[in-house]
Structures are given as C-alpha cells and as structure tokens.
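Worked Example 4.2. Consider the chain below.
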Amino acid sequence: MRHLKRILLGLILLLVAAATLVFVLENRQVATLVLFGWTTPQLPMAVFVSAALLLGLLASPLLGMLFYGRLRMQLASRQRQLVECQKELARLTEQPTAD
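Applying the procedure from the previous section yields the following structure tokens:
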C-alpha cells in the first residue's frame, strides 16, 4: 500500500510539473504591469501569474494564522470567564438559604 501511495504521489507531481511547463511555454508573450505609477520591466506573462500564485500561497497561511490567533485569544477569554462563573456558582451554592 505504501508503494502505491508513493507511485500515485510521484504521478501527481509529474503531472503538476508537466502542466507548469506547458503553462510557461504557452504564456511566453511579454507584458508590463503598471500599479500606482510603478512600472515593471517587460517579462513573460507566466512570470507575473506565477508570482501572483506564490504570493497567494504565502498570504493564505499568514492570514489563517492571524485568524487562528484571534480565535485562541477569544477562547482563552471565555475560559477565564467560565472559571470565574464556576467559582461564583460554588460560592453561591455553599451559602445557606434564608428560609
């Protein structure tokens, strides 16, 4: 089973590499991008698309970690509130009732 997984992984990587090669060869036309007055040098379109893909692959985990950190802080706050409420409940249940 382990060998089959390795073979499948190798085939998938080979297909991705072939698709990338075809993409680069098909998108060799030269382009220039202008953003806020800044102009890039003339490069093949595949360079710009690949750069955008890599930036997205880097930005996604960073944003995910940011949101995960915020959720962890909220969870810690809720856990502190829960402990305080449990202490308050224990204190109130220990008090004698005024009948």
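Helices lie at 2-26, 45-94. Residues 45-94 form the longest helix (50 residues). Compare this with Example 4.1 before moving on.
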